[in-house]
């Protein structure tokens, strides 16, 4: 599940970034921001996909990705709701949709990380009770 969630995040981020850089749909965001975010998504997507191909993805990196996705998703929702940019109607829908998708990736990755930890015995172990 974890590897699937990482690969899905990687493919979606890479594709969104590539579309943003190549097509640059009119969403009401400054072109420089749009290109910069698109390029970030291309490199991020390639990196996350690569992490998903590893036999045992590093837990610490996965946790950073989960936290980053939650921050990105919250920022996307705030960007649309607080009108930090003069987004068009289509831009608002796209920003909200990708924000919710990114939060969804974080949830899938968290579930996958927990199940991987349980399967390998690397999860939280109960404390032993000593009488001393």
Largest sheet: none
Task: Estimate the strand proportion.
Answer: under 5%
Q: Give the total of domains.
A: 1
Total helical elements: 4
Alpha-beta classification: mainly alpha
Distance between the termini: 42 Å
Transmembrane segments: 31-49, 61-78, 84-108
Protein name: SPW repeat-containing protein
Keywords: Membrane, Transmembrane, Transmembrane helix
What does this structure look like?
This protein is mostly helical and 132 residues long. The protein has one domain (2-117). Helix content is 74%, strand content 0%. It has helices spanning 2-22, 31-52, 59-81, 89-120. The radius of gyration is 18 Å and the shape is elongated. The N and C termini lie far apart (42 Å).
How would you describe this structure in keywords?
mainly alpha; 132 residues
In short:
It is built from four helices and no strands. The protein has 132 residues and is mainly α.
